[in-house]
Amino acid sequence: MSRPKKRVYIKTFGCQMNVADSEQMAQVLAQEYVLTDRPDDADLYLINTCAIRKKSEEKVKSLLGSLKALKQKRPQMLLGVGGCVAQQEGVRLLAAVPHLDLVFGTHGIYRLPELVRRAAWKRQVDVTLKEGFPAAPPRRWQPGAAQALVTIMQGCNNFCSFCVVPYVRGREYSRPPGDIVAEVQEFLEAGGIEVTLLGQNVNSYGRGLAEPVTFPQLLRNLAILPGLKRLRFATSHPKDLSDELM
Fold first, then answer.
1. 147-240 carries CATH number 3.40.50.300
2. What is the mean pLDDT of residues 175-180?
3. How far apart are CA 74 and CA 122, in angstroms?
4. Less crowded by CB within 10 Å, the N or C end of the chain?
5. What is the pLDDT of residue 135?
């Protein structure tokens, strides 16, 4: 007889990329945890954070403060913070919030099951930025879902003076086009009709791949897939806008 699964609650701040990351968190934890929309019932409470705007950081810190009472009431509940604020603050966040069990950065999503198991015994910090696009497990699409967020790249090489993305998301890496096409195709076969492609700078997609592919070429490869009604993308940097894309 299989053991009943534990419950995980995920609170997401920020952009569509963070929403997609939260979906991945739920999927990599799915063998041991089932999603709940009731934070008071959670065995694992994760906060996926955004550091682009100061207000988002302040909301995260305010939420962490308010969760002290819940942690005292349910000390067996594990509390973790991921995403850009976690990447930026690292061990400082763990030191500032005594009731926090786990801090994991933007490249730590696929190590979550192991980190959570370790956090049950000892507080954990993992903010290592890896090279290359992480090997993601296959997505599991909910039947009847009409829209999907599909990450095609991560990181940025522009280092604009006003932006923290290269520091919290790492350098720019593109996902192999075959993996993207296969993921979108599986979503369409499950009944989906609309896809949004995500990256910090989708206009520079394809650079650094073993077989370079431009972003317009990827769009053309996806646009011909049967069942796709709408194809969107976000975000883009104007300096990398090409005539081919226009």
1. no
2. 94
3. 17
4. N
5. 67
